[in-house]
Each structure stands twice: as structure tokens, then as C-alpha cells.
Amino acid sequence: MKDKHERIPVAEVEATPGLSRRRFLAAGSMVALGVGALSATGLEASAREALAREFTLLGAEAGNTLLVLARDIFPHDHIEDRYYRQALAPLEAQAADDAELRQLLAEGTATLDELAGARFQRPYAAIERESDRLVLLYQIEHGAFFQRLKGHLVTGFYDNKEVWPLFGYEGSSWEQGGYLNRGFNDIDWLEQDA
């Protein structure tokens, strides 16, 4: 009889039918990846919802639509939603004093959500595929709402000095004497012809 504290050789341990160590680890890894993906998606959605709640004048629903719309107009996957919110903040502030602009933004987001509801049975911001959202944008691209938003974002987003390093832009050079003597050709992301 074996002592109860004596080690049992691995060969004597019966394998659980159908479940090897390798399968167990693989299944555990897949579960962990799935939970991680759901968590990342959930975190992204909750971060966007938090930013959307900052739209106090227009409301969180319209704010969420504007954030997704801004990202669809100027899509940069590596840029966080907060930079899009920063670009939209002055527009909402302007709308506080401009009833016509406030109405344009409110009606524009409502119309976009109506189009999304008619075609995809959900609000614009809830449509997962970018290509599906673009179909809706093509319907409104010549309207005053889309043109006003696009015009505002082109300067509101790209003039943000916090965004410049994310694109590799070093900023204005005239204050330092221009680019000629400061490495005008030091960009490594642009393919150079030999």
C-alpha cells in the first residue's frame, strides 16, 4: 500500500476521456481571447457613451451619432474618440448661441437615425459595419447638415495640436526657420524612390 503523501507517477494517472492537457489549454486560451475581445468592445462602447454624455446641449443620443459620423467622415482607426469629441465641442458651444445651427444639428442627427432605422432597424451609431453607415452618408452628403459638419471637422480635427504627433506631423516650422535646415526629409513613413 502506498503512503498517502507519496507521489503517484504521471503514467499511473488516468487521462480524462476526450480532454488532453493541450485541448484544455487551447480551450482556455480561446475563452480568454473571447472574453478579452468582448471586454475591449465593451470598453470602447462605454468610452464612446461617456463622451456622448458630454453633449449636454444636443443630448447623448445625438452626441453618439455625431461621434460615429465624425469618425466616418475622417476615419482614422488609431485615433481615439476623445479627439473627435474635442473637434465637435466648439460646434456644440456655437450651437448654444445659434438656434439655426442647433436645429440643423438636431434635425441632421435625427434624420440620419431615421434613415438608419428604415434600412437597418437600428440607430446610425449602432450599425457595426462602416460600409453600411457609408451607404447612409452618401444619401446626405450634399445636404447642409453633412457639409456643415465636414467643414467644421476638417479644421476642428486636423488643427488640434494633440493629434499632430499621432500622424507624424511635427508642427509648424516657420518659427524655427523652416524645414530646409531642420530635417525636411526625415520622414521615415514615406516611401522614397531610388
How does this structure look, described?
With 194 residues, the chain is mainly alpha-helical. It is built from seven helices and no strands. About 4% of the residues have low confidence. This is Twin-arginine translocation pathway signal. It comes from Zobellella endophytica.
Return residue spans where pLDDT drops below 50 for at least 5 consecutive residues.
Answer: 37-43
Question: How far is the first residue's CA from the last residue's CA?
Answer: 80 Å
Mean pLDDT: 78
Work out the radius of gyration. Answer: 26 Å
Please state the overall shape, judged from the principal axes of the Cα atoms.
elongated
Structural category: mainly alpha
Order of helices and strands: HHHHHHH
Fraction in helix: 55-70%
**Biggest sheet features:** none
Q: Tally the helices: what do you get?
A: 7
Q: List how many beta strands DSSP finds.
A: 0
Strand content: under 5%
Task: Give the helix/strand layout.
Blueprint: H1 21-52, H2 60-73, H3 81-97, H4 99-120, H5 130-140, H6 144-158, H7 164-167
Helix pairs in contact: 1-2, 2-3, 3-4, 3-6
Explain briefly what this protein structure is.
With 194 residues, the chain is mainly α. The chain has seven helices and no strands.
